[in-house]
Amino acid sequence: MKKYKLLILALGLVSLKASAQLGKPKETFTRADTLRGDLTTPLRTCYDIGYYHLDVKFDIDHKFISGSTLFKFAATQDFTKLQFDLFANLKVEKVVYKGQELPYTREFNAVFVTFPTTIAKGNKDEFTVYFSGNPIIAKNAPWDGGIVFKADSLGNPWVATACQGMGASVWWPNKDQQADEVDSALISISVPTGLQDVSNGRLRKVTDLGNGYTRYDWFVANPINNYDIEANIGKYTHFNDTYDGEKGKLTLDYWVLSYNLEKAKKQFGENVKDMIKAFEHWFGPYPFYEDGYKLIEAPHLGMEHQSGTAYGNHFINGYLGRDLSGTGWGLKWDFIIVHESGHEWFGNNITSKDLADMWIHESFTNYSESLFVEQRYGKQAGQEYVHGTRMNIVNDRPIVGTYGVNKEGSGDMYYKGGNLLNMVRTIINDDEKWRNILRGLNKTFYHQTVTYDDIVDYISDQSGKNLKPVFDQYLHYKNIPILEFMVIRGKLNCRWQADAKGFNMPVRVKVKGGDYHFIQPTTWFRPITITNAAKDNIEVDTFNYYIGVLVD
Ligand SMILES: [Zn+2]
After folding, report:
1. For residues 101 and 104, what is the distance between their CA atoms, to the nearest angstrom?
2. Å from CA of 349 to ligand 1 middle
3. Is the pTM value of this prediction over 0.90?
4. Strand runs (DSSP E) across 328-434, as ranges?
5. Residue 22: how many other CB atoms lie within 10 Å
6. If you measure from the C-alpha of residue 365 to the centroid of ligand 1, how many angstroms do you get, rounded to a whole number?
7. Alpha-carbon gap, residue 483 to 507, rounded angstroms
8. Which pLDDT score, from 0 to 100, does residue 25 have?
9. How far, in Å, is the centroid of ligand 1 from the Cα of 361?
């Protein structure tokens, strides 16, 4: 049928011979990639990090930073040597253990420290790394990150950190992987007196150091991943509010440049409470009541810094004023407030162990945008939004990246990932169950780091459906599956063309004018059991399903 042929053409990038596209493009990885991305080396697994006190002074005039990190850890095995990470362009001044300087060696961005005696399994211990240098200046934060040194419109210094992907060791020493999070952290940032630092968690103390610098101590009472730890330095003004949420009173604190105060009050007032209401409904309680919710104006677009979301959307709706769905729904709310805050649940509460599974952060958070739209404007609006974002999908390579080398996959983790989750909801076909799964994920993996299987198995188990082949196809392969119809011996048959083993996604089809039925094709042709189904009257739910359809 013409309609279906056109649909195939419209899909453009989708090959009909999906099986010819098996495998991932060949990439080569270096020793430096492995040092950074390998989660399994004993030099990293030998210690479980529990607490950082990060103490960094920003000499803004010279774009120079200096300070220390205290590592508190528990030994998971006997060891004498461990690895921590610090970018090679920063100098290690010394590593101190029980008042004694420790020998260390460096290789790329890794530092190896040898202790004078064996640290025994189960022991709790600590060491401090002193460092200094000129950190990498972000070329295009938050994507190509580092430290942003800018000035506000009044000429005041405005400095921010943004290091997702590249890693927090671009500006302070730490065990730089997502699999191991501290339980709490103290962040001390010293800034030229007259400026303010805003970091994660709650402000504990402000100390005038008497040398032209003032130190701000921020305490984070919850587990936090490294790239979320932030410094935002500028001439800020503060206002606040509270929200009566599922776990009681949630403090809302806002730090913006003084000349943006009125715009901020209006924009935050119109977006934040609705956002928290929607996400608590769908995902469960905001995961960090102890640390509060904050928005901090930043000299870049935004970043999901835990309990201190960096905000740079210029107090306008949409994504810098654009609607990523092309439906109109995306212009009715502030994209950065909604998207970055969605990460408090997926990304910050639930963190992927390996950067290759960044889809756990971005697919769910992209999907959260449509749930916000649904909560505010109804289910149809949310469905239109998620469907509209398909125009941004490129199907260039798999969404899952390469494990063990700190490499994320395709940017399709956003829009294709969001469409995948909406499809999974369609398959489960029970919105209350789906909501309980989303809430259950946040409860079961509360403040934890997770793997691909943790998430996919949980959704399969809770839904009572084996959704592994569905996730597999959309996350591990670049092509979308194609539902192929063919008349065999006078009967309409169909099958899936797909890469994933055992692909058998249930799909909604109907004969023209009738109701939708779920059928569950396999990769072998089987007759369709819907009465009167024929080549010229069969219709597939391609609004909810992101698939190709082929009628032979
Ligand atoms: Zn995101």
Report:
1. 9
2. 14
3. yes
4. 350-352
5. 9
6. 6
7. 9
8. 54
9. 7
